[in-house]
Design goal:
Layout: E1 2-5, E2 10-15, E3 18-25, E4 28-36, H1 43-46, E5 79-82, E6 92-101, E7 104-112, E8 119-127, E9 132-140, E10 145-157, E11 164-169, E12 177-182, E13 186-191, E14 204-208, E15 219-224, E16 230-236, E17 242-248, E18 255-257, E19 262-264, E20 268-273, H2 276-292, E21 302-304, H3 306-309, H4 315-328, E22 332-335, H5 365-373, E23 377-382, E24 386-387, H6 392-396, E25 416-417, H7 423-439, E26 444-447, H8 467-485, E27 490-493, E28 511-513, H9 520-533, E29 539-543, E30 546-547, E31 555-556, H10 562-569, E32 573-576, H11 585-607, E33 609-614, E34 621-627, E35 633-640, E36 652-653, E37 663-666, E38 671-674, H12 675-680, E39 683-684, E40 692-700
Parallel strand pairs: 21-22, 21-32, 22-23, 23-26, 26-27, 27-28, 28-29, 29-32
Antiparallel strand pairs: 1-2, 2-3, 3-4, 5-10, 6-7, 7-8, 8-9, 9-19, 9-20, 10-17, 10-18, 11-12, 11-14, 13-16, 14-15, 15-20, 16-17, 24-25, 30-31, 33-34, 34-35, 35-40, 36-39, 37-38, 37-40
The chain binds (2R,3S,4R,5S)-2-(hydroxymethyl)piperidine-3,4,5-triol (DGJ).
Length: 701
C-alpha cells in the first residue's frame, strides 16, 4: 500500500511486514525509514539536523533518496549529468502519481533540474504479498546531455546502527561463495567490469544486525536485475548514515541523450525481514517464482552429453546415450557444444550455426527424431555472442567483433566477442536461431558465454554511447524475441557455469547452469551460496563422473557415491551428465530408482520453502529441507562428508517449517511423527562413514 501524507509531506510504502518511508524537505527527497513495519512515520524524529561544521555543511544530504552530483555534497552520487551549460544538477521534487500494477501499487515521483532541463522519474513498485519493493529510475532528457553515472537507487538504512553484511564472491568453477563481514565507515563496493554479471561477485547484498543468523535477526537485502557491468556500493558516513547504492557500473560508462530520449535503469529489488538469512531467501524465492521467472512447468530431468563426450560428438554414441537416458527416466536430452560448423575443438567453428556435416551426415533430425521416439524432448547448446577467428563468420565479417582501432583484440578460449549491438549482427543471430528452431523440433536452448568481454570501443559510433550497456540491451532484445516467437522453447542461462545469473536474465531464463564444478561436495557450498538470493526451482545440478573440473583434469568418482551425487543434484533441477554408456546395469537401475524418487519430490524441492538446516561451512554434516507451500510434504537431504569425531552417532536433526499440529509419515520407514516433535526433538541423522547422504521424505497423514 502507498500512502501520501499531504500535511507532513511523507510517502509511506508498506508491504507484508515492511515499511519504506520517504520525506520531502525543502524540495529534496530524503530516505527516512526502511525496515520492520511501522504504524505512522514521524519525520521530526527521522530527518537529521543540517550543519555540523564548515566541513560538513549539510548532514541531511547524507540521507538523500536519490543523490545527484551537485558539487555541494560529498556522498556517493546516483547520477552525474553533464551538459554544455553545467557539470552539476540540482533536482527538486515536482510531483507524484500512484498507479496499480499486477502485484501491487506503483509510485512514480518526478524530480526536475532547471540547468540540464532533465527529469528523473523515481519508480517504486510494491510486490505486496511478497514484502518486496522494486526501485528503479527513468532519466528523461529535454535537451542534449551526457550521463557519466546513472545508478538505479540509493537505499537509506536506519541510522545509528551497526551493520554486518553478506555478499557472494566466486570465479569460474567456484561460484557463489558466502562472505560475511562488518560494515565500517567508508565505501565498500562489489561489481562487475567484465561485461556480464560475472562469477566474481553477484549483484546481491544483505545488510544485517551483527547477531543475525540463518534463523533470526534483521536483514535488509537487495538484488539488482542486470546482466552487464554493475556495481553495488555500501557507504557508511562518520555521522552514522548507511546506504546501499546499486545500478549500472559507471566505470567506462557514458550515455549521450538528445531531447526526447529516455533511459530506463535496471530494477533493484529490496526487502526486509527479521527472520534471518533463511527467511530472506524464502522471501526472495517466493517472489522470484511468482513475479520474475517466466511461468512454466516443473523442470524436466535432463541428460546433457557434454561431460560424457565433449567435442567428440558421434551420432551413434549420442543415440546410445539417449536410449539409456530415456530408460532411466530423463525427459530432455541436451546436445551441448560441438554439433555445428567445424567445431572439433574449442579453436574453431564458433559463430557458424549450421550443422556439422561430418558429425551429422544425415542432419540433426536423425538424432532429434531418435530422442523424440525414446520419449524425450530435445535441447541444444548455443554461444551466439562469441566467434572463433577460425570460422566462416569471422572470415566474412572481421569487423563484427568488439575491437579498438589499431589494437589486436584479446582472445579468450580462442574466441572474440561479437558486437551484438550492430543491427546486422543481431539479424544474423536471429536468422540463424530462427532457421535452426524452425527446421528442428527443439524445445530448449542452453545459451552459453565463455569469456569476459573486452575491447569495447564506442568512439567510432555516431553517438558514442556506452557499448557495455547497449550489449545488455541487445542481449535482452534477442532473448525476448526468442521467448515471444518460440514460446515452447525454454532458455537456460550459462556463462561457463554461473557467470550470468541475476534477476535481469531471470526475466527470460527458465533455469541456469549453476557451475561447471559438478563435484557433489563442492556443490553443497555453491548451492548454499546460490540459494541465498536465487530459487532452487531454476538451479540446475548434474550428476557427473567428474571430481572438480577446476583444472580440466577429470578424476573419476568411482561407483560408491552415486547416491550422494544424486542427492546433491536433487537439491535443485536434476540433470545427468555422466557417461551412462559406460554404466553397469546395476548403476543404471540405481539411476532409474533415484530419478523416480526425484520426480516424486521435485515439486516440493522446486516450489517449496527452503530451510538450510546445517551449513556445510565449518561442519562435516550439511542438511537442507524443502517444505511444500501447504506444509503437506517435506523433503530433507542430509550429507555427511566425514564421520564426526566428537559428535554422538545418533545426532538429532531438528526440522523446520512443518505444521506443528499435523502428523507426518516418514516414507522410507513408515513411522509417523508429530510435526511439533520433528521440529522440537528431531530425527536421528543416522549416517555412518564418509561421503554418505540420506533423503528424508515426510508426507502429512
Ligand atoms: C561451458 C559450460 O558451462 C559447459 O557446461 C559446457 O557447455 C561448455 N561451456 C561447452 O563449451
Amino acid at each position: 500500500m502507498i500512502h501520501y501524507d499531504e500535511k507532513r509531506r511523507i510517502f509511506h510504502l508498506s508491504a507484508a511486514g515492511m515499511s519504506y518511508v520517504i520525506g520531502i524537505a525543502e524540495g529534496q527527497l530524503q530516505g527516512l525509514y526502511f525496515g520492520k513495519a511501522i504504524a505512522a512515520a514521524d519525520p521530526t524524529n527521522m530527518i537529521r539536523t543540517g550543519e555540523h561544521s564548515s566541513f560538513d555543511m549539510d548532514v541531511r544530504v547524507e540521507r538523500a533518496e536519490y543523490p545527484c552530483f551537485d558539487g555541494h555534497s560529498f556522498c556517493e552520487p546516483c547520477l552525474k549529468i553533464e551538459t554544455d551549460r553545467a557539470r552539476h544538477a540540482f533536482f527538486t521534487y515536482h510531483g507524484y502519481t500512484v498507479t496499480q500494477e499486477p502485484f501491487g501499487e506503483k509510485l512514480s515521483i518526478t524530480l526536475k533540474d532547471e540547468q540540464s532541463r532533465a527529469e528523473i522519474e523515481l519508480i517504486y513498485k510494491l510486490y505486496e504479498a511478497y514484502g518486496l519493493l522494486e526501485r528503479s529510475a527513468v532519466i528523461h532528457a529535454k535537451a542534449e546531455l551526457e550521463l557519466h553515472s546513472a545508478l538505479s537507487a540509493c537505499v537509506n538504512l536506519p541510522a545509528d546502527r551497526s551493520y554486518h553484511m553478506r555478499y557472494l564472491t566466486g570465479r569460474w568453477g567456484g561460484e557463489f561463495q558466502i562472505n560475511d563481514c562488518a560494515v565500517g565507515t567508508g565505501v565498500f563496493a562489489i561489481q562487475s567490469k567484465r561485461g556480464t554479471t560475472s562469477a566474481h561477485f553477484n549483484p546481491c547484498i544483505a545488510l544485517c544486525t551483527p547477531e543475525a543468523t540463518e534463523e533470526n535477526g534483521s536483514v535488509w537485502f537487495g538484488a539488482l536485475g542486470y546482466s552487464g557491468n554493475w556495481a553495488i556500493k555500501v557507504e557508511q558516513t562518520i555521522f552514522g548514515n548507511t546506504h546501499i547504492l546499486a545500478g549500472i557500473n559507471d566505470s567506462d560508462f557514458r550515455w549521450k541523450m538528445q531531447a526526447g530520449d529516455m533511459l530506463q535503469l535496471p530494477p533493484f529489488y529490496i526487502g526486509f525481514t527479521d527472520g534471518g538469512f533463511g527467511e530472506m531467501s524464502r522471501c526472495m524465492h517466493r517472489f522470484e517464482n511468482a513475479c520474475i521467472l517466466p511461468k512454466r512447468p516443473l523442470r524436466r530431468v535432463l541428460y546433457n552429453s557434454w561431460e560424457a563426450t565433449a567435442f567428440h560428438v558421434v551420432v551413434e554414441k549420442q543415440m546410445r546415450l539417449a536410449d539409456k537416458a530415456a530408460a532411466m527416466g530423463c525427459e530432455l536430452f541436451v546436445l551441448d557444444d560441438g554439433w555445428f560448423g567445424k567445431r572439433d575443438n574449442d579453436r574453431a567453428g564458433l559463430g557458424d550455426w549450421t550443422v556439422h556435416t561430418g558429425k551429422f551426415p544425415h542432419g540433426l533430425s536423425e538424432l532429434i527424431d531418435h530422442v523424440n521416439r525414446c520419449g524425450m524432448d530435445f535441447g541444444i547448446w548455443l554461444e551466439p555472442e562469441a566467434v572463433n577467428p577460425d570460422s566462416d563468420l569471422y572470415r566474412a565479417h572481421p569487423d563484427w567483433i568488439y575491437r579498438y582501432a589499431d589494437h589486436e583484440p584479446l582472445q579468450a578460449r580462442n574466441q572474440y566477442v561479437l558486437n551484438i549491438t550492430l543491427p546486422e549482427v543481431q539479424t544474423y543471430l536471429l536468422d540463424s536461431i530462427t532457421t535452426l528452431l524452425k527446421a528442428h523440433h527443439i524445445t530448449y536452448i542452453k545459451w552459453d558465454m565463455n569469456r569476459a568481454i573486452t575491447d569495447m570501443d564506442g568512439r567510432g559510433e555516431e553517438t558514442p554511447q556506452s557499448l557495455w550497456h547497449k550489449h545488455v540491451q541487445a542481449l535482452y532484445r534477442i532473448w525476448a524475441y526468442i521467448r515471444s516467437e518460440f514460446p515452447n522453447v525454454e532458455l537456460e542461462t550459462c556463462s561457463g557455469g554461473g557467470g550470468r545469473i541475476d534477476l535481469g536474465i531471470f526475466r527470460y531464463a527458465d533455469q541456469c547452469w549453476t557451475s561447471d564444478n559438478t563435484d557433489p561436495y563442492d556443490r553443497l557450498f555453491i548451492q548454499e551460496g546460490y540459494t541465498q538470493f536465487y530459487p532452487p526451482s531454476a538451479m540446475m545440478c548434474w550428476v557427473t563422473d567428474t571430481h572438480r573440473s577446476e583444472h580440466g583434469d577429470k578424476e573419476q568418482w568411482g561407483h560408491r557415491d552415486l547416491t550422494y551425487r544424486f542427492h546433491s543434484a536433487m537439491c535443485g533441477g536434476l540433470g545427468i551428465g555422466s557417461d551412462i554408456d559406460l554404466f553397469h546395469q546395476e548403476e543404471l537401475d540405481m539411476c532409474r530408482t533415484l530419478i523416480t524418487q526425484y520426480k516424486e519430490i521435485r515439486e516440493t524441492v522446486q516450489e517449496g520453502d527452503l530451510y538450510r538446516l546445517l551449513s556445510p561451512r565449518g561442519s562435516c554434516t550439511a542438511a537442507v529441507e524443502y517444505v511444500s507451500q501447504n506444509k503437506n510434504e517435506a523433503v530433507t537431504f542430509v550429507f555427511q562428508q566425514s564421520q564426526p569425531l566428537f559428535q554422538p552417532q545418533h545426532r538429532l536433526l531438528r526440522l523446520q517449517g512443518l505444521d506443528p499440529a499435523a502428523h507426518y509419515r516418514l516414507m522410507d520407514e513408515h513411522t509417523v511423527h508429530s510435526g511439533n516433535d520433528l521440529m522440537e526433538i528431531g530425527l536421528p541423522i543416522d549416517l555412518h562413514g564418509e561421503m554418505k547422504s540420506r533423503m528424508i521424505h515426510l508426507v502429512k497423514v
